[in-house]
User: Which sequence fits this backbone?
């Protein structure tokens, strides 16, 4: 196919967030460039040093300069470059106490879900994409409120307290990239893509057993409605009290 005409692309991309704390920065991060077909979401490890900045380094770099490939060598080189950016954010003064120097040496950790689309030629009936995941941040694709894919986890019992994580430490990196999972897919007009950090993804995959209402809500809610829902679930003990991030977009002709 060649020539001009309508093309399929990602549209309506937005990031909704509900922080767990009103006084502390979120450890989640999201970056979007729908025009180039790029989405990235990361969840910084709660007990790691400066994990919010590390999550932001990962997603901003993914959207600005995504890995040349999702194989271990390409991903390793890309993470090392992101870790150099993070190290500049946490540079310590010479008089910093030893425990802080030790913490910087140990580094930080975060999940990553990154998605890249292939440019669709005019007239194509699907938009092809490829995604990489390290950890439990999840991509769910929907067609008419019905999930067609949940990646890398698809059942609530698969979530654990020790997910795979990308480290800033060069020593830990070779093992970490072996945990990367890669998948491909294709979206048709009207399909939705949702990317969620772990607490929201686990809740949604639990709720899907009771019908499509959860996906209907997540497709259409605004940030105020999501915040109200999350806080109600927190009060009832039905959702882990963690930072919540939801990124969503739709496949449509442009």
Assistant:
């Amino acid at each position: 196919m060649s020539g001009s005409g309508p093309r399929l692309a990602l549209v309506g991309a937005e990031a909704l967030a509900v922080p767990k704390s009103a006084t502390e920065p979120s450890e989640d991060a999201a970056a979007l460039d729908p025009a180039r077909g790029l989405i990235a979401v990361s969840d910084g490890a709660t007990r790691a040093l400066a994990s919010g900045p590390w999550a932001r380094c990962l997603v901003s770099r993914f959207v600005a300069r995504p890995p040349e490939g999702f194989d271990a060598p390409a991903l390793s080189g890309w993470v090392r470059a992101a870790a150099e950016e993070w190290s500049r954010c946490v540079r310590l003064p010479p008089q910093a106490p030893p425990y802080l120097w030790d913490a910087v040496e140990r580094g930080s950790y975060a999940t990553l879900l990154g998605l890249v689309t292939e440019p669709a030629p005019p007239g194509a009936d699907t938009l092809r994409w490829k995604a990489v995941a390290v950890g439990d941040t999840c991509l769910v694709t929907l067609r008419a409120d019905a999930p067609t894919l949940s990646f890398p986890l698809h059942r609530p019992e698969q979530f654990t307290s020790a997910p795979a994580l990308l480290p800033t430490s060069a020593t830990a990196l070779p093992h970490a990239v072996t945990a990367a999972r890669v998948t491909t897919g294709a979206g048709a007009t009207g399909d939705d893509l949702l990317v969620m950090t772990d607490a929201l993804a686990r809740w949604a995959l639990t709720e899907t057993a009771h019908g499509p209402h959860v996906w209907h809500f997540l497709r259409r809610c605004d940030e105020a409605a999501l915040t109200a829902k999350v806080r109600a679930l927190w009060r009832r003990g039905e959702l882990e009290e963690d930072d919540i991030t939801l990124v969503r977009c739709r496949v449509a002709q442009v």
Summary: The two ends are 17 Å apart (CA to CA). Residues 29 and 231 are 20 Å apart (CA to CA).
